[in-house]
Structures are given as structure tokens and as C-alpha cells.
Amino acid sequence: MTQGLFLSFEGIDGSGKSTQARRLAEHLRTRGREVVLTREPGGSPGAEEIRRLVLEGDPDRWSAETEALLFTAARRDHMERTILPALERGAVVVCDRFADSTRMYQGLSRGDLRAVVDKLHALMIGREPDMTLLIDMDPETGLSRALGRQGTEERFETFGADLQRRMRQGFLALAEEYADRFVVIDGNRTLEAVAAEVTQVVEARLAETPA
Ligand code: ADP
Ligand code: TYD
């Protein structure tokens, strides 16, 4: 039996997930909770190595199927080494992206691989977050925010605005499919306004969960 709370943030690149995840973690720590702030791909030493394989270098070096395997392998390690031990200790796990990102990016971006992604998930991961916060926003704004950051990890950002639009619609459809765990948050607002809603939604959930 796990006692903690497993939260994930999802949304298109540049929607403000990392910023909100960080702020939420800080807020919960000031309230005395143990928080494990983590991200995917990554979140454990082995998964961070896989992150470099999938996010750096020529975007076409992996097939969509191989990529789905690599993201799932990274997730399995992250679950074993970081997420499950934290939940067993009673911590709140705040994860920047999780399996819904694989459903979207590997499942939709290069053909229809959603069924393969779901099978891999059932076989190797078998668990969803308790609550998923989808930061929904206008793709043009998201893309310009994402491209405004400097860095070597541009894997999906380079695919451009059309992919971002399809991803946004895909995430909204996923929120309907998994309505029991998704909360859709309007990201087209100030950082503070978004953070206030995130805090309120999570506090309400924690009030229902024994510490
Ligand atoms: P993601 O993790 O979803 O890709 P980030 O949190 O890294 O997004 O945010 C992308 C960029 O947009 C960062 O430079 C961040 O400071 C900025 N940003 C995040 N949220 C907002 C907001 N509500 N309004 C304006 N800029 C924002
Ligand atoms: P991330 O670092 O969250 O990027 P951003 O801050 O720009 O949103 O994720 C890096 C990229 O990895 C992002 O373009 C989405 C992609 N990704 C997948 O394709 N599949 C996955 O399963 C995950 C977790 C991420």
C-alpha cells in the first residue's frame, strides 16, 4: 500500500509545467510535506542517461517504436528508484510529465501508436498518477516561450506549431478519457494566477488524503 500522493503535470512544451511544478513543491514544503520534485524523461540516474539519448542529437535517429521503448524504459527505472520509494514513505511526488506524454508524443506524433504505447504501459508501468494537472494553453504562445529558452534539448520543439496544435487537442481529449484524474488548468494567465489555482486544487485533494 502506498501512502503518498502522486501528481503529474502535463501540457505542450512551454506551457509552464516546470515553473508550476517547482512552485507547487516549494509551497507544499512550506506546509511541512515531504515533496519529491521530479521529471520525465529522467528523475533517476539511469533515466537521466536515457533522457540524453532521446532528447539530444538528430531527431530522426530513433523510430517512433524505439522511442516508445526508450521512454518506457526510462519510466520504469524512475518508478523503481524514485517514485515508488517516495510514495511508500508518504511523500508527495510532483512529476513534470509522465505516461500521458508518451501517449501523446509517441502515440500521436508519428503515426498512430497509441495502442502500442498503452500495451507497453500496462506491461511495464501499470500505474497512473493520482492526479494529473493539464496546463492548457494556446500553442503559439507555448512555442514562443519554449523557443525563448536556450538549450540543447529541442527534440519536439523543432517540429513546430502544427505538432503543438495537435498535441494540445490530444491532451484535451486525454483529459476527457481519464476524467477521474485530470484537472484542466488555463495556462494563458499570469504565473501567479495559474499557481493559485494549482495550489487550491492540490490542497483540496490533500485534505481528502491522510498524511
Ligand atoms: P514547460 O515546462 O511547460 O515547457 P516552463 O515552465 O519551462 O514550461 O516555462 C516556459 C517559459 O515560460 C519559461 O521561460 C517561464 O519562465 C515562462 N512562463 C511560465 N509560465 C508563464 C506564465 N504564466 N506567463 C508567462 N511566462 C511564463
Ligand atoms: P520536457 O523537458 O518536459 O520539455 P518542455 O519543458 O519543453 O515541455 O520534455 C522534453 C521533451 O520530451 C518534450 O518535447 C516532450 C518529450 N517527451 C516525449 O516525447 N515522450 C515522453 O514520454 C516524455 C515524458 C517527454
Description of the molecule:
- The chain contains eight helices and five strands.
- The protein is an alpha/beta fold.
- It has one domain: P-loop containing nucleotide triphosphate hydrolases (Rossmann fold).
- A five-stranded parallel beta sheet has the order 2-3-1-4-5, sandwiched between helices.
- Adenosine-5'-diphosphate binds next to helix 1, helix 6 and helix 8.
Instruction: Quote the distance from N terminus to C terminus.
Output: 14 Å
Give the proportion of residues in helices: 40-55%
| Overall body shape | globular
Poorly predicted sequence stretches spanning 5 or more consecutive residues: none
How do the strands line up in the largest sheet?
A: 2-3-1-4-5
- Arithmetic mean of pLDDT: 92
| Radius of gyration, in angstroms, nearest whole number | 16 Å
What's the number of structural domains? Answer: 1
The succession of helices and strands, N to C, reads EHEHHEHHEHHEH
CATH architecture level-2 label: 3-Layer(aba) Sandwich
| Major sheet details | 5 strands, parallel
